[in-house]
Amino acid sequence: MKPAPFRYHRARDVHGTTELLAELGDDAKVIAGGQSLVAMMNFRLARPDHLVDIGALHELDHLGVGPQGALHIGALTTHHTIETAPDDVLGPGFAVLRRAMGWIGHLPIRTRGTVGGSLAHADATAEWCLLAVALGARLVATGPAGPRHIPAGEFFLGPYTSVLAPDELLTEVVFPRPAPHAALTEFAARKGDFALVSAVVDLDVEGGRVCGGRVGLGGVAPVPVRVPEAEAVLADGGSFADCAAAAAAAADPPDDADGSAAYRRQLVRSLVERACAEAGGTAEPREAGSR
Ligand SMILES: Cc1cc2nc3c(=O)[nH]c(=O)nc-3n(C[C@H](O)[C@H](O)[C@H](O)COP(=O)(O)OP(=O)(O)OC[C@H]3O[C@@H](n4cnc5c(N)ncnc54)[C@H](O)[C@@H]3O)c2cc1C
Known about the structure:
With 291 residues, the chain is an alpha+beta fold. It folds into three domains: 7-53, Uridine Diphospho-n-acetylenolpyruvylglucosamine Reductase, domain 2; 62-175, Uridine Diphospho-n-acetylenolpyruvylglucosamine Reductase, domain 3, CATH 3.30.465; 182-280, Enolase-like, domain 1, CATH 3.30.390.50.
């Protein structure tokens, strides 16, 4: 199918774009890489009267570590840019992001799809949404009155729903500190599919010992979640297996045609233990898409 008719607008600067969005209201949609929106328009799941193309807002295509060690990623940065970013840009502290990109769709999708588009789209199993929540990222939303900073844990409201207002652009995501002992792993029905369940573990390591960490899960709730019960096990010096068991016990996953709740809980257990081992350096990172 082809999309319903729409009027095309080419954005020229961030401020003018937010003013245009404010004027057009709910009748408008921003388009970045188009990898999610175009399919939704073709299926008539989205029928915007106005399409605002932000592809020429080159100031939103940036990537670099700031003076405090935080990684700043402009919204128009593609998944492939992160996947191929050299060490002197990402450094060892953010290699988890580079490795995670291999799990997103296929190469043509990664060369056009953007970080900001993925976060704004707010798919509960998207890798960027989980990474942002698990690693405590901050999202920058810019409206006609200027930017506001939103913790990732408060950004997602439900499937495909976020706190972004119709007149706001997502302009940047900031990962506040390096995560040198972090890993993402997941299970999908086929290579390149969205994950059924995904896990991110970010360990705190002192003197060669794990003294805490963050555990995040995708595919078990309407939004990506942290799991305090599993994080408490890491803080108490428990084993990776105990951490994984605590995550599985705490998870309340959906039960549907794609997989039963019991199956997803079992996936949580094995994926969290695997992510812990990869993050802790006792297992090699799995190649994206492998079982
Ligand atoms: C076959 C296939 C497989 C895929 N597999 C995966 C996968 O495994 N994991 C995964 O995470 N993704 C997957 N994707 C989605 C892909 O990652 C998209 O790139 C991403 O979800 C959206 O990015 P985009 O730049 O293409 O956004 P678009 O499609 O252009 O926009 C998506 C939504 O975000 C809004 N938007 C975009 N940019 C902004 C902005 N800066 N500010 C405000 N709103 C904005 C748009 O209005 C729209 O509602 C897959 C896509 C396909 C087609």
